[in-house]
Write a structure and sequence with these properties.
about 325 residues; mainly alpha; two-stranded parallel ribbon; 13 helices; 5 strands; globular; binds tryptophanyl-5'AMP; ligase activity; nucleotide-binding
């Protein structure tokens, strides 16, 4: 079976609908066809200032959400990044192969550093994409399910794999991004020109999986749309309606043309009302499952420990080979 690796940051109280539709939905599906490694990337989370108590809580809530959404710990290695030390160890080696200019060109770093001011942005934020490359390469992953915003990081990962292989002999699988058109970029409900993101300007623009479903329904009903009437997919002229159609289509597995036909002669209000209902019906049982995982933290931690063990069986082997290739002495 081809291998898959992906990760998500525990940097908010809840995942949002963009995370789910852009990435996590694929994580769950790929369990049927791939050998899967999924993790909560707490090492990445400390690249920005954080509170230790909050981080620990969010890491567990993140894991609980992944389980509730359908990541199956029997079929997948589900783990927390910091519990697998090989990620950080490989990252150092890859940092030494990454050009300063190359890392400086990462747009997500540039955006975040610009927001914080370069004096405040950490070196960890700068090397973040290299750690991400290590995450992927240490499992010899063939495919990486992510949203569109991670494409450049995947490109860097491929370059680093190829560079290492060229210099030291074939060691790493060169991974392919798995980016599903249609849901690769879910947009902000209040500003459909920008992606749905935790750092949104208005909380009404993002649907959080763990917020009160009534609140989510309200956000859908008050999503920004154009002044027209016709329910048609048209990214250029009807960005808001198109975004709602993408979400609707993904949550129901109905095609966009099918939805357009169903709403012929009806208005945006009908579309929003129905989508709000679909969303509430989908998210309510998920919230219940999240809560039941959080009710037994000891069991949750055990699941994660088992996941880390599975992950280390692979990551330790790759790291040993890498250390040998670069000329380190055998383990003492
Ligand atoms: P993160 O935690 O920001 O987001 C998790 C996943 O959600 C996707 N995503 C979206 N997809 C569609 N529309 C949106 N509006 C949207 N917002 C977020 C992201 O593309 C991502 O797939 N650097 C990564 C975490 C990471 C990782 C890895 C991923 C660390 N190591 C190794 C893959 C492999 C990140 O910050 O994702």
């Amino acid at each position: 079976r081809p291998r898959v690796l992906s990760g998500i940051q525990p940097t908010a109280d809840s995942f949002h609908l963009g995370n789910y539709l852009g990435a996590l939905r694929q994580w769950v599906r790929m369990q049927d066809t791939h050998e899967t490694f999924y993790m909560v990337v707490d090492l990445h989370a400390i690249t920005v200032e954080q509170d230790p108590k909050v981080l620990r809580q969010r890491t567990r809530v993140s894991a609980a959400q992944l389980l509730a959404l359908g990541v199956d710990p029997e079929r997948s290695a589900l783990f927390v990044q910091s519990q697998v030390p090989e990620h950080a160890q490989l990252s150092w080696v890859l940092e030494c192969l990454t050009g300063f200019g190359e890392a400086s060109r990462m747009t997500q770093f540039k955006d975040k550093a610009a927001k914080q001011g370069t004096d405040h942005a950490s070196v960890g934020l700068f090397t973040y994409p290299v750690l991400m490359a290590a995450d992927i390469l240490i499992y010899q992953a063939d495919a990486v399910p992510v949203g569109e915003d991670q494409r450049q990081h995947l490109e860097l990962t491929r370059n680093l794999a190829q560079r290492f292989n060229q210099r030291f002999g074939k060691t790493f699988t060169v991974p392919e991004p798995h980016i599903v058109q249609g849901t690769a970029k879910i947009y902000d409900l209040q500003d459909p020109a920008v992606k749905m993101s935790k750092s949104a300007s208005s909380p009404n623009g993002i649907i959080e999986l763990l917020e009160d479903p009534k609140r989510s329904a309200k956000k859908i009903r008050s999503a920004v749309t154009d002044t027209g009437r016709e329910v048609k997919f048209d990214r250029e002229n009807k960005a808001g309606v198109s975004n709602l159609l993408s979400i609707y289509s993904a949550l129901t597995d109905r095609t966009i043309p099918d939805l357009e036909a169903a709403y012929e002669g009806k208005g945006y209000g009908d579309l929003k009302k129905d989508l709000a209902e679909v969303l509430v019906d989908w998210v309510t049982p998920i919230q219940e499952r999240v809560q039941s995982y959080l009710d037994d933290v000891a069991e949750l931690d055990k699941i994660l420990a088992r996941g880390a063990e599975k992950a280390r069986a692979v990551s330790a082997r790759t790291l040993e080979r890498v250390f040998d290739r670069v000329g380190f002495l055998p383990p003492a």
